[in-house]
Amino acid sequence: QVQLVESGGGLVQPGGSLILSCAASGIVFRISTMNWYRQAPGKQRELVGVITSDGSTNYADAVKGRFTISRDNRKSTMYLQMISLKPEDTAVYYCNRGGAHGAWGQGTQVTVSS
């Protein structure tokens, strides 16, 4: 059974930083392409970024240069490092494997506000 568990969300001031984690189980993590999505209030869920099994990454234009995805295959964990956070980054952040019809975590709330 695939299980993805996000953690690390919270309230942060504009310009601040956070690191989210996604702990995976029930999959062969080291060969899995993993995704971060987010959903802001009243908006559709959007792809934030992707990390492939070899560590290659791709990001949405809105977060390029501010967000970094990494992975630790020994711990079956993916990370999302976020810096220079903006109020428009406020959303529930989800860990995903396999796209829309794949496995999802429960999400972690990130609120950027002064």
Find the structural class using helix and strand composition: mainly beta
Radius of gyration: 13 Å
Question: Can you summarize the main beta sheet?
Answer: 7 strands, mixed
- Give the count of helical stretches: 0
Provide the succession of SSEs: EEEEEEEEEEE
Shape: globular
Helix content: under 10%
Quickly describe the structure.
The protein is mostly beta strands and 114 residues long. The protein is built from no helices and eleven strands.
Question: Mind sketching the topology for me?
Answer:
Blueprint: E1 3-7, E2 10-12, E3 18-25, E4 34-39, E5 46-51, E6 57-59, E7 67-72, E8 77-82, E9 91-97, E10 103-104, E11 108-112
Parallel strand pairs: 2-11
Antiparallel strand pairs: 1-3, 3-8, 4-5, 4-9, 5-6, 7-8, 9-10, 9-11
Walk me through this protein's architecture:
The protein has 114 residues and is an all-beta fold. 0% of the residues lie in helices and 50% in strands. The protein is built from no helices and eleven strands. The chain has strands at residues 3-7, 10-12, 18-25, 34-39, 46-51, 57-59, 67-72, 77-82, 91-97, 103-104, 108-112. Strands 2, 4, 5, 6, 9, 10 and 11 form a seven-stranded mixed sheet that branches. It has a four-stranded antiparallel sheet with strand order 1-3-8-7, with no helix packed on it. The chain is globular, with a radius of gyration of 13 Å. The model has no long low-confidence stretch (mean pLDDT 96).
